[in-house]
Amino acid sequence: MKTVTLESNSGGERLDLFLASNIPELSRNAAQKLLTSGRVTLGGKPLPKSHKTSPGELYVILQDEPENPIAAPQDIPLDIVFEDADVIVVNKPRGMVVHPAPGHPDGTLVNALLNHCGDSLSGIGGVKRPGIVHRIDKDTSGLVIAAKNDRAHLSLAEQLSSRTLTREYDAIVRGSLKNDSGSINAPIGRHPIERKRQAVTELNSRSAVTHYEVLARYTGFTHVRCRLETGRTHQIRVHMAHIGHPVLGDTVYGRKKPELGLSSQCLHARLLRFEHPATNEHVVLSVELPEYFTKALNKLGKQGDYCGT
Fold first, then answer.
1. pLDDT at 246 over 90
2. Are 205 and 187 in contact (CB under 8 A)?
3. Is-catalytic flag, 137?
4. Among the options 64, 75, 106, 137, which is catalytic?
5. Distance from chain centroid for Cα 152
6. Number of neighbouring beta carbons within 10 Å of residue 261
7. Is there a contact between 103 and 25 (Cβ–Cβ < 8 Å)?
């Protein structure tokens, strides 16, 4: 257990909302459970779910310690696109989590990398995510780069920070974009109410820029290519939904039911461009669209919906 104390500086706000807004890892549902179990107190007395904040109140919250799984090697097949003594790049299938986390203690990309690389992964990411330089969502497929030593990790992290490591994604989005290309410059932060989601917001946000171009248009859908200038959580999914064109199959930021036989968002990390951390050579790697993506495009085409570019 760990104890967190919070002081309210405003009045009239539901306590569960206040807790979820001020404790990053806490969802509103989890806050309600803490209240129901008597683990949120004021002056030593448990507070009810109906409590509303008053200025100057000091709340004491008793939380469970978060799970901290340590990654172990697992014999999981890898689609390796590039590998040498410093770097390994893998084409991750959708449905695979990148590193262990609460609810996903194993079966991750890190578990597979540990089995393949042994002790040669960078230790900068810690015991849960050794070697991991950047992440993509569980249900996003495509290229992920990992570092085999700390020197390579620091170099690649610097390239991410300076925006010289290029990442391009293909996506099918709903609707027809007005322009054939454009940029979305809108800050992204945690959703103020739904804590497991991200949102375009000025509150506790970071700058986020996505560039896009149209590859093909279909009736009601558009095949786009997106280039990340920044790398915020769920960035492409949030930005495309923000401009009214959510990613097809994204039940978090788009329609709540999957379409065209998809079980998740139609989003694929197709290209990486970076400077090799040891040789300084420019490396460009790309992979073909996966089967689930091409099947969705074929379904749109067979319906006679292709409208050109």
1. yes
2. yes
3. yes
4. 137
5. 23
6. 10
7. no
